[in-house]
Design a protein that fits this description.
This protein is mainly alpha-helical. The protein has 4 helices and 2 strands; from the N terminus they run E-E-H-H-H-H. Strand 1 and strand 2 form a beta hairpin.
Length: 161
């Protein structure tokens, strides 16, 4: 059974005041309420993964449902990391990981709306990006000076004599 993150304490966290968060002059939530919500989300997400059956299809890891499960797993990891950073007082790092959770939400929304079409777009974009980075690296490599004693193909020539 899923349990709350070990860094979470019901009566507050070390280094964090139980302050009220204000947005536009109105009460939004207290820190302990946000942490409680994060832990409820973690428990729910972990139960979802524990009870779900990952489909085995000809698409393999490119199946939209498999990617959805991977997004949930990545979000769990990001959220646990954010809670750990909060516990350690590393708020900037916690915000970065929280932003990753937010980005996962957008991926999940696109996956829900477009399904396999979105997966194909992501795979295509990744392939294009890899080719582009490879070309940039090859161009950079060609612009570098060849060290003395090295041949054009990048092989060290043995000196004879």
């Amino acid at each position: 059974m899923a349990r709350p993150h070990p860094g979470y304490r019901q009566n507050g966290n070390a280094g964090l005041k139980n302050v009220i968060t204000n947005f536009g002059g109105r009460r939004v939530a207290r820190v302990d309420e946000w942490l409680s919500l994060a832990n409820r989300i973690l428990v729910f997400a972990q139960r979802l993964l524990d009870t779900a059956e990952v489909p085995v299809t000809p698409q393999g890891a490119r199946d939209a449902r498999v990617i959805a499960f991977a997004l949930v797993a990545r979000t769990i990891s990001n959220l646990k990391g954010a809670l750990g950073m909060i516990e350690a007082g590393q708020i900037i790092e916690a915000r970065t990981l929280a932003r990753c959770c937010w980005e996962n939400l957008f991926w999940a929304a696109a996956l829900t709306k477009k399904g396999d079409k979105f997966v194909r777009q992501v795979v295509s974009d990744d392939a294009f990006s890899r080719v582009k980075r490879g070309r940039r690296l090859m161009n950079w490599s060609n612009e570098q000076e060849t060290p003395q004693g090295w041949g054009r193909a990048g092989c060290l020539h043995r000196r004879t004599g």
